[in-house]
Amino acid sequence: MKRTDIMIAGCGCAGLYCALHMDPRREIMIITKSDIKSSDSFLAQGGMCMLKSESDYESFFEDTLRAGHYENDRQSVDIMIRSSADVVKDLLSYGVDFQKDEKGNLEYTREGGHSENRIVFHADTTGKEITEKLLKEAGKRKNITIYEYTAMLDILSDRNECFGVILRRPDGTVEPVLADYTVWATGGVGGLYAHSTNFPHLTGDALAIAIRHGIELKDIDYVQIHPTTFYSEKEEGRSFLISESVRGEGAKLYDRKMKRFVNELLPRDRLSAAIYEQMEKDGTEYVWEDLRTIPREEIRSHFPNIAEHCTQKGYDVEKECIPIVPAQHYFMGGVRVNHQSRTSMKRLYAIGETACNGVHGKNRLASNSLLESLVFAKRAALEISETYHPAGAFCADQNQLEEIRRQSDMLETKNRELVKDEMKKAALERKKVC
Predict the structure, then answer these.
(1) In whole angstroms, what is the distance from residue 285 CA to residue 95 CA?
(2) Spatial separation of the C-alpha atoms in residues 364 and 154, rounded to whole Å
(3) Percentage of the chain with pLDDT > 70?
(4) Cβ contact 92:227 at 8 Å
(5) Which of 191, 259, 312, 370 has its CA 20 to 30 A from that of 37?
(6) Which one is catalytic: 110, 118, 168, 268?
(7) How far does the chain reach from its first CA to its final CA, in angstroms?
(8) pLDDT digits (tens, 9 = 90+) for 37-50
């Protein structure tokens, strides 16, 4: 049976950053369900929050709590904010090219829900810039190997202890891989929705496995709708995001009569609700967003990718408004973890959008996702490295393996239905309590 020291399922920014902070003496196997660039980390446009100075701490903390309806885990929020400068320092050392002024100082932008400019960015492709540099750094490490088109089907476990995973290779072969520690970084649940900014293959695989194994979940009914994605009459595989930073830099939202109807810098859930309300009043499937309020040079330097996409769809953002509509964007819930990203099962960790440490509460503040993913990925890596001890002997359940081999082609469909049902149950339970 194949064996590795550490198994990481997912190669977005959380999985990669976690691997880079593991003890370099440990062999790390990273698997990804698709190709290495088809993670939502690549799609993050706006940027990443950072504590610029101690004077901004209280404001940053309050903005995060207000966006989360004060349901946030306050210790998680404090850890995230206090760790932000350290994360940015790491990323700069990997060569991440955040926007700087003529003196070489970091520049900051602002998004909805923020009372200050505190977001570092790289044009409108910040996630791509960060993840590409993490991939490049991982490629230099002899102890890290990445396997594309390799899906996690289940975990190997006994008495609430994880001993590795059961995976499916690109050729369809199903096999177990033993690991002393396993880290889930499988992303969110956008693939469960007809309209989402996520890649469609992100369907909550880790959640389904957690449900089957009795691993604790948290807030799985908390799903964020992004207020502004490009509206298209044609079916698209993925909704194209119009970054929050666009509104942070001055873009306006109009109804069908081209009248402004809302404060564009409201937190995402409130702004999405206002847009849906306006669409219902107007009897339309979209509202308008006006980028002409932003200086032309700012559009070309800060939002070139967005402008190019709109051009391809027949809209010149420097001359006309674009149609936008809300779409599923982010998953605040997930596998319950502590402040070191440890799950309720021994030797199993969860990070990134897969995990829920309570930092976001009911609704995520813009540009906290990349930061939270990286902060708690590093904490997982450090705890594993500092407390590392090999797993005991494990004998795979041959009946489990054979059952998974028989059902491997149908398993994803079953997992999707399992997760959707559990999310509905959680939502109903919350309504009863309220």
Answers:
(1) 42
(2) 29
(3) 99
(4) no
(5) 312
(6) 268
(7) 49
(8) 999 998 888 899 99
